[in-house]
Amino acid sequence: xxxxxxxxxxxxxxxxxxxxxxxxxxxxxxxxxxxxxxxxxxxxxxxxxxxxxxxxxxxxxxxxxxxxxxxxxxxxxxxxxxxxxxxxxxxxxxxxxxxxx
Length: 101
Hints:
The chain is of the alpha+beta class. It has one domain (2-100). It contains two helices and five strands. Strands 3-4-5 form a three-stranded antiparallel sheet, covered by helices on one side. Strands 1-2 form a two-stranded antiparallel ribbon. It is globular, with a radius of gyration of 15 Å.
């Protein structure tokens, strides 16, 4: 049930920019052409880990993408998340540039 609240939070926060995506700024990024809510994205398709549902994916005019994962009431639950082992092997080959922001 928590995910429904987070999804609603994302829609309430970003829906006002539908039709005005080029005016939206997210983490110093702007110039968006479209927004997608509850976007299903494959995770490491070569390892069949599964799919990730992102609360918002904003597609930029320059071809870039910004993803938003909102948290609303998840901190109230007792669920403990875990990472599949494939994340550890993939992380070793990733650029650290995304961590600087």
